[in-house]
TrEMBL record:
The lineage of its organism: Bacteria, Pseudomonadati, Bacteroidota, Bacteroidia, Bacteroidales. NCBIfam families: prfB. This is Peptide chain release factor 2. Signal peptide: none annotated. It comes from the Bacteria.
Amino acid sequence: MITSDQLHDVLERDKALRGYLDIDGKNIQLEEEELRTQDPGFWEDAKRAEVQMKKVKELKKWIELYGEVHAAAEELELAYEYVKEEIITEEEVDAAYKKALHLLEDLEFRNMLRDEADQMSCVLKINSGAGGTESQDWASMLMRMYQRWAENNGYKISIANYQEGDEAGIKTVTFNIEGDYAYGYLKSENGVHRLVRVSPYNAQGKRMTSFASVFVTPLVDDTIEVKVETAAISWDTFRSGGAGGQNVNKVESGVRLRYQFKDPYTGEEEEILIENTETRDQPKNRENAMRQLRSILYDKELQHRMAEQAKVEAGKKKIEWGSQIRSYVFDDRRVKDHRTNYQTSDVNGVMDGKIDDFIKAYLMEFAGEESAEK
């Protein structure tokens, strides 16, 4: 059975979390924000109303999440007293402890996600590296890993663009992961992922190294203001490929958006290229491509602000696209993150989407420093 020290730890962390989250302040703010929604004419400006309702929803969510933690802590305290009177069993006390600890750790974890974009959905893109079929197969394995993670955590997934490999796997894939804090969790995945294994595509059975790059950006919605220069946009269409079906390749439903971006701070120019084959409806694919463009432009502005505010030491928070962040060594049964040094021997579990410990290790090391510097 749990000790009095373990009970004391839970109660103290519950109390501390109430202060960190400013639950009393959030309750007052919620009353004020809900009053604004009752103003006559509130829904006349639909966009402003949507922003306001989003603010109310966010406040309610934090209050409810803390309410669950606090209720579990109180139940544990009561159970600890009841077991002395033999009203309940020691096993029931231990179960109450596990529940309280799980809720507490989850909320402490989420409290690390305080960046402006952390609560947003995300766009995740995977590109296979040099190495042909082996790298393309590796890219498809990473795609499955993130899809399983998203499914296990209740997120909605939609494929925006998909290009098959020459013999197996994929050359590139872009998909949206929609739900609260998808970006906050998956921003830790930005960078190059390295696979070492005996390749099934090598006749000599040699051990080979492959690479794939992962890019994660916030997925903006209509409540986020993003400036897009319409004159800098050009479009063309193509016949979309992908998983079979009678309508595949018969109509040019795929869209390709080119945007001539000029950095307002440095003057540097680059072309942003986006392809979308999400649906068989070309206008819908155009709409989805524009949403991806707005997400990329928003992320660029966000990265600039973060650099200007010097939130963390150079090279820590901002992960360069060329940086190798994690190695997956199948033969040695080892997956290691090179930024945090966290590693596990559960290779199969990781490839099945169990990457929460890697995410948590990243946030513990970098988000904690960031919060301290705010």
